[in-house]
Amino acid sequence: MPTPERYGYATARIRAMERRFVDQGVLQRMLDAEDLSSALKVLGETAYAPWLAEMKNERDFDRPISSEMFHCYEEVRQFVPDPEMGQLLRITYDFHNIKVILKSMLRHRRGQSRRWDLLTNLASRETDDLLAAMESEDYRLLPYGLSGVMEECLSVWEQTQDIVEVEKRLDAQLFRALGELAKATAFPGVLRWFRARVDAENIRNLLRLRRAGEEGVKISEFLHEGGNVSLERLVDLGSEPVESWSRVLHYADVAPYLAEMGEQGSSEAMLVMLEKALDDYISGMLAPFSYTPFAPENVLRFLWSKEIETKNVRIVLVSKTSGLDRDMVRKVLRRV
User: Fold this and answer.
1) Distance in angstroms (rounded) separating the CA atoms of residues 314 and 266
2) What is the per-residue pLDDT for 241?
3) Alpha-carbon distance 313 to 330, whole Å?
4) pLDDT tens string 258-303
5) How far apart are CA 226 and CA 205, in angstroms?
6) Closest CA to 124 of 186, 81, 77, 78
7) How far apart are CA 80 and CA 65, in angstroms?
């Protein structure tokens, strides 16, 4: 396994690639633009410019956003010393594609059309390989320990027709595979990031399940092992008002970010602000590595920051198509 010293060249390349970031000033100019067309013109002054030509129309802005993210992932893949560092964020897209393929297969059995348009090229594995494995039912070809899980998922579907139960098993396998990748790097900061990701996902699921009226044992079925906050504490947290979560979790690093949410008027607004708080939590955990020249975690920090940037750009452009209040949009923009 590469030692931190071997990441000198990689971190130098990362420093150069950081010039591609959209700074806060550009983001504010996009937000203050009169309409979507004006916002896209501002975006055209950034690293996204080459990809804007791919748009079929003004509302097709997801295409250049994905192209910029794909370009960064592929460039990093070429110089990172070990492949696990480049897969840590892309594995989520692998599981997204698996879900799309599985749901399309189930739709096809009911005489409905497949949804290949929902597949993404941001995954670390070729989509054609996943398709071939799924359609041939040779699940041994699937990565990340999915062979046995896929058979279990299909069995559950045949018995219950409950797609939530299927997704729950796939999500559990995602975090098991993510934990294995993080451990394979053997870098402390990557392991800290993984634990933060688990905590963020668990807290996110907790609020969503509360909104759905679930409690107790049912909630625990959707939580993942490996975080800083114990599952028992999280289950107990389900009976507490959301406003008090930061106080109950005062010992955890996520607490200050939860405290910044404040009181929200609706459960929908609460969920939106929670998503922002959890993204900021992970960004804040990775930020100090920027001061360590040879830290391998800088690769992860860069890719995570780029993901957050694309999320901010997408939020601003969506706000232009739907006429959202600018002050409200500013509140939900993530820190970069």
Assistant:
1) 23
2) 87
3) 12
4) 998 877 667 788 899 999 999 999 999 999 999 888 899 999 999 9
5) 15
6) 77
7) 23
